């Protein structure tokens, strides 16, 4: 048995799947259909345990996003009928409910069965109570992010799902904490037999998610998981999910060279992370104006910016590059700006030993420009900050991905320390040193403001 994770952006695919890599499972993140099919073939041959597919659907129309999710399961699930797949399905959703997740779940439900909806990620301050998501104790609908992007719309899970035609019910784990997994599974099964399409799980902590994870493993009815990285981590920690013969992760490949930190997110969280990275390392920073990126192919300053990015990297110096902001900025142009930024960087990728990419669109654009279609996950710096390498072992580049409005203030600095520590360990030629360096790179976490 293997696992298919269907995510709508790259950083989400990685931060959801990293728990399985941490648990010692060979885990691949695919950026496209061809790479996903190749990974599925490897899974069928027993070489890969977990496939995380980025459908790149967060900014699509809901109907198009739904079509991509359903097609991914039809092609990669090995499905003969509802509940008879050769692998399990995990629909990764954003813990603050961004994107087209409702349409995607509605499209998958007739194919995969009962949707166990549990977006809580307690390690990052996201919990669910009475069908409502809370971010560090604040209802999601009252946060600045929700108001900026979804003003006037409900942030409650039940009406969102029911508007898509799904019959829902709430499942309060707290009231069932004393039940063993088999009795919890019976309670889940009763909802499925009653015709419920989506069961919304209240979860306050990791223990709640662990209970749900264990109960679903003994559930006989057709179902699939819908959640963030929180539930995925609890599933990954259960050895019975795959058995004892699941393929182990690949060995990391290293090289010497500069580290590029590429930031496409304009969130205050990313801004604080950049500030601490500059303060602690003293590395140079380039802020590329949006006006240049909007017309990168014809703008008269494009060549100057491309050269400015390349010079320090060619000299072996680390560099921070991020997208600026102006009065004309529109959040909907994020994909275009990220793609343009990646085009400026692409000629210099050959110099890099490490790439830290913040923002799923930015990471995907950069990897696509560099011709990298899939990643093998290795480890993580802190929750949601995943370390990987290209599946093609010819390119010895270590990649760190992180969602924009995510992580502690130390996230980027911790990622940089992690990559530098791995290079130092390689020079010393000692795996013990590598483990110590990776451990030392875990900077203390601080609470980050939501943005």
Automatic annotation (TrEMBL):
Domain Four-carbon acid sugar kinase nucleotide binding intervals: 260-412
GO molecular function terms noted in the UniProt entry: kinase activity
Keywords for the protein's UniProt record, in alphabetical order: ATP-binding, Carbohydrate metabolism, Kinase, Nucleotide-binding, Transferase
Transmembrane keyword on record: no
Ranges of residues in domain Four-carbon acid sugar kinase N-terminal: 4-235
Keyword ATP-binding in annotation: yes
Pfam families in alphabetical order: NBD_C, SBD_N
InterPro entries in UniProt: 4-carb_acid_sugar_kinase_N, 4-carb_acid_sugar_kinase_N_sf, NBD_C, NBD_C_sf
Segments for region (Disordered): 427-451
Domain of life of the source: Bacteria
Similarity field: Belongs to the four-carbon acid sugar kinase family.
Name of the featured protein: Four-carbon acid sugar kinase family protein
Lineage: Bacteria, Pseudomonadati, Pseudomonadota, Betaproteobacteria, Burkholderiales
